[in-house]
Amino acid sequence: MAKDAVSLVDQRTQAAREIPIQDGAIRAMDLRQFKTGPDDFGLMTYDPAFMNTASCRSAITFIDGDKGILRYRGYPIEQLAEKCTFLEVAYLILFGELPAAPQLKDWIAEITLHTMLHETTKKFLEGFRYDAHPMGMLASTVAALSTVYPESRHVLDPTVRALQIKRLIGKMPTIAAYTYRHSLGYPYVYPDNDLSYAANFMNMLWKMMEPKYQANPTLARALDILFILHADHEQNCSTNAMRAVGSSQADPFLSTAAACAALSGPLHGGANEEVLKMLDVIGSKDRIPAYIDKVKAGEFKLMGFGHRVYKNYDPRARIIKWAADSVFEITGRNAKLDIALELERIALEDEYFVKRKLYPNVDFYSGIIYQAMGFKPEMFTVLFAIPRTVGWLAQWQEMLCDGEQKIARPRQIYTGEAARDVVPMEQRGVATTPATA
Ligand code: ACO
User: Fold this and answer.
1) Cα–Cα distance between 61 and 77 in angstroms, integer?
2) I need a surface site. Which of 94, 114, 182, 352 has the fewest CB within 10 A?
């Protein structure tokens, strides 16, 4: 009968060992027993960028990248986007089950209780330059909350953790909206707790002189769906940052700030902003083939295309395309959609993209909707960070409660100089290569 193990022979020593396989993986630590002698550290694995390394066991999000499947706690993303609200999905991601009506009512009330920012935090935000990037403001302000809630450092206390989780989910839209108002020089708008999570966010962004902000229900629902789609995505770059920083038992505000920093990069959450810039550069449909030629020549990447895990259509991109129609009925069609659709059509027929299994990812269409709703491209990644905070926190909590986890500390393969002695200054030659440290 087949055995769940792999037999390895170390050709250096002829030592043969059987390494157990569990869940399709072997434990890297099992390789340590392959040694050339008592002083040998033992065999390691080398996996830059974690291309083939599972860093944790997780029960939160399932992705089948080849089939284009995404599920939170077992529920298909398509059903959650159609049938649930964002806060319902947040509850599911954090607690493992969808809430019953009274649980959801309490959960909404608890999050709503934490939407206000301390006035000193508001003043902190006022200190940024008028043209500061909203993601820089968001990451810094989230980090600053660590000073407002010093008890948050007791990360092993479940009650303390639960409170910070609610605070972060409640306050992210408030900080995000303030970064937006700040860049426009508008006064900040306080949360309106009568409104839904998405509608309150819209209130804090766009309320002017009217006594009560009325969010367009179609746009609020579209935003809510976009929040659902972005809520978690297993071990992506920013979640890995959250887990890595959190593994040192840093408090959740500082860990979330680190995750925001990771998200801001153009290869990750920053891609949605880059897609819009790219569509502006392309300008018209007739210029797409020339642009694609440059991508294929390696001059730059097609932003919003490709994914480490999805080698098929990103299911979130499909839902976003569908949500776009409802938004455009209210806002009018974003002219960039035609360029994006044509770009997708041409790319999906081109051998370069087909061979590499490069499909549109979540960021390809999200920016087009956000822009139609009135957001500036600089805000797009902030809009991603609001819902992803739920995923970061669920993953952070799972990591802290996982008895197998320790401080994240990878190994390296040292490629530098062998031991050498410091030469007195007067005897040193001028270095021929510039320092790259
Ligand atoms: N445009 C053109 N070529 C691409 C693209 C792209 N967008 N993405 C990957 N490729 C090419 C690579 O050059 C490489 O080609 P090669 O085999 O000839 O060298 C091949 O496809 C494999 O790509 P990798 O870079 O090895 O894939 P990796 O998994 O490391 O990167 C990533 C994934 C970062 C998402 C990449 O596809 C990319 O940079 N895309 C553009 C940025 C983007 O949209 N990021 C958002 C991702 S979704 C998210 O984070 C929310």
Assistant:
1) 10
2) 352
